[in-house]
Design a protein that fits this description.
The protein is α/β, with parallel strands linked by helices. 45% of the residues lie in helices and 19% in strands.
């Protein structure tokens, strides 16, 4: 029988944040103060496996995704599967800082001390039952659940055309009028597009002074478009 050797790249796993959710909020705020901007990404095991992030691979698309994760300010372990994978292969057990739970906690912490504005960017996909109406649902959920949080702008794009017509002129003009202490760019355009798009436009987003969170399905869960897994 032919022996098959699989080479694994653990650089991403070693880049994962290793402290508690209370500490990561403090560290994110400190990064905003010292750098003026911050990029937060999540690594979900299924996405990593699907994109072959744990293999040595020359494919350009996978490399761009891996680079986007590695070069973010914070890379957080999303889910129990990734925790176990890390424990088995690199001997570490990072905290489960999945975005569906962490992001609402982060909002609660931020709005207690800061004036926070939100720039929401997401996709819709009618064939999958996600219509344009989910943008308004997302706004209502955020503003009702976090009363001191302002959604300054919410925009969305058709899934198959995502990122093509983003209005950078509008963004720059709006940010110049925004006096919030923390400006949150909440990118919910799904993995791996959201991470690569943010990385490609990182200079423009950082110039706006954003706390950039590539949040995946957070809004989908908050609006019940997606269902949480059984506990």
């Amino acid at each position: 029988m032919e022996k098959v050797v699989v080479m694994l790249d653990f650089s991403l796993l070693n880049h994962l944040y290793t402290w508690t959710r209370e500490q990561v909020v403090q560290d994110i705020v400190q990064t905003m103060k010292t750098k003026g901007s911050c990029v937060v990404n999540f690594l979900y095991f299924a996405n990593g496996a699907k994109q072959r992030l744990f293999e040595w691979t020359p494919e350009e698309g996978q490399k761009k995704y891996a680079d986007a994760l590695l070069e973010s300010d914070f890379l957080l372990a999303d889910g129990i599967a990734l925790q176990l994978f890390c424990k088995w292969f690199v001997g570490r057990y990072p905290p489960n800082l999945n975005g569906t739970d962490l992001n609402p906690y982060l909002f609660d912490c931020l709005v207690k001390e800061y004036n926070v504005s939100v720039y929401l960017y997401q996709c819709y996909d009618p064939p999958k039952g996600k219509t344009v109406a989910f943008l308004q649902k997302g706004i209502e959920v955020l503003e009702n659940r976090f009363p001191w949080l302002r959604v300054v702008r919410a925009d969305q794009c058709l899934f198959r055309e995502k990122g093509n017509n983003f209005d950078w002129t509008w963004l720059k003009e709006t940010v110049q009028r925004d006096t919030a202490a923390i400006k949150l760019f909440f990118n919910c355009t799904w993995t791996p597009f959201q991470e690569i798009w943010t990385h490609d436009h990182e200079q423009q987003l950082r110039a706006c002074g954003f706390l950039i969170i590539n949040a995946g399905g957070t809004i989908d869960y908050l609006t019940w478009y997606e269902q949480r897994a059984p506990q």
